[in-house]
Amino acid sequence: MTLIQRTRARAVETLTLDSAHNRNALSAALVGDLADALTRAAEDGEVRAIVLTHTGNTFSAGADLRDPPPPDAMAGLLRQIVELPKPVVARVTGHVRAGGLGLLGACDIAAASGAASFAFTEVRIGVAPAVISLPLLPRTDPRALARYYLTGERFDAAEAARIGLLTAAGDDVDEVLAPVLDGLRRSAPQALAETKRLLTAKVLEAFDQDKGELGRLSARLFASADAREGMSAFLERRDPTWAV
């Protein structure tokens, strides 16, 4: 049973994260299913662009702490989105946490409604936003990332747009995205692919240069005593021992 719903309208393929039992957390299974769906969409000549969205009130709760994907698999998914020869558009109407923000960073265009909220919560469970930094650092305001990476604070869609995590925000996300999707449908496929290649060159340089180091950092932190305590505290709905 796949964790990704697929629909199509006028050459736009919509991939919907559908893992309600864990608020679309990035499990090994979800990451694998999304990678497969992206591959099929990329190979389909009838697909002009891809919309990535979600069921429920959460776009993604971040890594599934009970079944996390290996760092290489997560990095591979993010790179796949960046390298895909078709534009990928994120449509967000709910909460996004931790690893889910990496998906937004990898997408070419991202829009959210006022119901959305965002937080890099890794430091609060004893790890760091390592692998997801590959697409985020080249595209997002560095001073803002310093604040939100280090504090784990929650912020809204307007702030996410201000710092470059989102392309746009509005009360009605579909209204925001209507001219975007219309523009993509009016664009030549080869021109879209080559223009995307221009736009993603610097992001792919970050993958080539830093993927190995950041993957090792992620693996080391997830195996640490702090991470074991932080994840236990999260799952048990209590404060970790270091909270003061």
UniProtKB/TrEMBL annotation:
<dbReference type="Pfam" id="PF00378">
    <property type="entry name" value="ECH_1"/>
</dbReference>
<comment type="similarity">
    <text>Belongs to the enoyl-CoA hydratase/isomerase family.</text>
</comment>
<protein>
    <submittedName>
        <fullName>Enoyl-CoA hydratase family protein</fullName>
    </submittedName>
</protein>
<dbReference type="InterPro" id="IPR051683">
    <property type="entry name" value="Enoyl-CoA_Hydratase/Isomerase"/>
</dbReference>
<dbReference type="InterPro" id="IPR001753">
    <property type="entry name" value="Enoyl-CoA_hydra/iso"/>
</dbReference>
<dbReference type="InterPro" id="IPR014748">
    <property type="entry name" value="Enoyl-CoA_hydra_C"/>
</dbReference>
<dbReference type="GO" id="GO:0003824">
    <property type="term" value="F:catalytic activity"/>
</dbReference>
<dbReference type="InterPro" id="IPR029045">
    <property type="entry name" value="ClpP/crotonase-like_dom_sf"/>
</dbReference>
